Amino acid sequence: MIETLLEYDKDxxxxxxxxxxxxxxxxxxxxxxxxxxxxxxxLLLYLMFKKYDKKVFLIIVISAILMVAFTDQVTNLFKDGFxxxxxxxxxxxxxxxxxxxxxxxxxGFFSGHSxxxxxxxxxxxxxxxxxxxxxxxxxxxxxxxxxxxxxxIGVHYPLDIVCGMIFGALSxxxxxxxxxxxxxxxxxx
Length: 189
Fold this sequence. Notes:
By secondary structure, this protein is mainly α. 71% of the residues lie in helices and 0% in strands. It has one domain (2-187). The protein contains 7 helices and no strands. It is elongated and about 60 Å long. The relative contact order is 0.17.
């Protein structure tokens, strides 16, 4: 059953990856580059800074840092534990897929980009929902595009990104709850 699932995953990867064209390659390479999103992250921090008092904002920042470290480290544990090669490392896919990125890591299950972006989307979306009702949907769309970019450039299978998104959503919610706990515990002192 797992072998069949993995074959379907490869087939879906090839279909989605081959939808790309050189016209869009630059866009998706830029979209998937984390550092290009620094102004976006700073904007989200600014919005939270404006809406929350300084002590709560400090708890938010600490929670966010812990969340990103958590998702990164757990993602690495899964990659090293499962040792599923990325599509770009599969000899059977050479010549069948589009490899847009110059460099490709070794193991890919599950996607760190997908888990981190979905965690940020859920965490930030829940924090800002009382003030910006529809922002969470914009953030979820942004995270979904981030996940798709990984298939587009040829470094993750769809199952890698779906599992990464699920883990990221759970992590984002968990750290949102942790922020609430820390706020009650330390702000009410």
